[in-house]
Amino acid sequence: MxxxxxxxxxxINDIDIIExxxxxxxxxxxxxxxxxxxxxxxxxxxxxxxxxxxRIGEELLGRLHDQKVxxxxxxxxxxxx
Length: 81
Description:
Largest sheet: none
Low-confidence stretches: none
Structural class: mainly alpha
Shape: elongated
Radius of gyration: 19 Å
Strand content: under 5%
Mean pLDDT: 86
């Protein structure tokens, strides 16, 4: 059985594109959720699926954020605060 590729060669621009696409998707899901709730309260199951999809997308964005190093000096030691 083939395994998963655990090494990815993504550039900073690639990550930015992924993040922006995930944010745009989240905005669209939010619009859909608001429209469905306003139209008919019977759409609650569809709204739950949309909310779960939004949560998964936000968790992915969080994991991407947590892997970033925002500032690290090239020379000398790092002193925070």
